[in-house]
């Protein structure tokens, strides 16, 4: 203790008075110096030493976040539940699923006794008036266990949960895992069990089933899920309508697509996102991209993705365009281009429509360049002219003008006048 006092005194004499405030990971440790006028920025700078930084410094998945947490507590610091939730969220965003799982499982296990004498996180946590983990914590753990250890481990964990924890949220998390892996029978069995348990199914639950049926090509089952939603008075969201429209589009049922758009327009909460979505779908239909898509033509590729599945991807692009989520648009388009699949004019028109609707002219120009350089699909001026006409027909004259100017800038001739 005396040595520490002497050290601090010497430090103060050499560099001014030091005040350190140690906080949880949500704000980095702040070290404030009252320095002389000659002290440099480098001398004052300190490497952040917070819980989040320590965990993110674990570069290798085999290293354990538990050791970091134990060391943190060993230094006399506390951890809050919100700390662990936020750390796990950030790790998931960085796709560091193993470390995210370790963080969230410490939270979930905090209400249980230790199985093997290991010091449990419950002794370290500041609960902030929360006595136990939330359903969402268990749901996140199920999703992460699927990603890290596989579906079998996630199933065993779910089945071992007490009945009180087998809620809509945790069941839907397992349903999501089944849908992602296209395990139709298991998903349908769990879906029936949820209904038998009288759980209040929400929009996300129904969307998971619709997503599954779209992915396995059982398009006829998608409208049945929508009808069941309506029967249970569960309001569809934008994702619901996108899946429903996609299923009808894949079956080339254009009249049904129109009726769905009419239903959306009659909704009381049809805000800007809904209007943008309806405009994009209308543009897509008016430009002839559905009518000209043959269901029997199969894209030549190792994966054998059909035109029906391509249409589903197109509408996923339209959905995120309507949501204004450029990051997702970028990701989907990049993923599709990396599959080495044969692009069609329809695919280029779809992504172009979304970027134009959001006003991202630079990205729209890049799509035109990619299209013109494509070895698989020649640049289609007639499709661009149809797209120009479609924009005008839905009342988006300004977007039509911008698109035409962009085409001229990119050296595309034979482009019709936009007005």
Automatic annotation (TrEMBL):
Superkingdom: Eukaryota
GO-annotated molecular function: mRNA binding
Native species: Solanum verrucosum
Family, as annotated: Belongs to the PPR family. P subfamily.
UniProt xrefs under InterPro entries: PPR_rpt, TPR-like_helical_dom_sf
Span list, region Disordered: 28-50
Protein name (database record): Pentatricopeptide repeat-containing protein
The organism's taxonomic lineage, starting at the top: Eukaryota, Viridiplantae, Streptophyta, Embryophyta, Tracheophyta
Gene Ontology, cellular component aspect: mitochondrion
Family annotation (NCBIfam families): PPR
Biased composition (Basic and acidic residues): 41-50
One Pfam family matching this protein: PPR_3
PPR repeat boundaries on the chain: 167-201, 202-236
The entry's keywords: Repeat
Keyword Repeat belongs to the record: yes
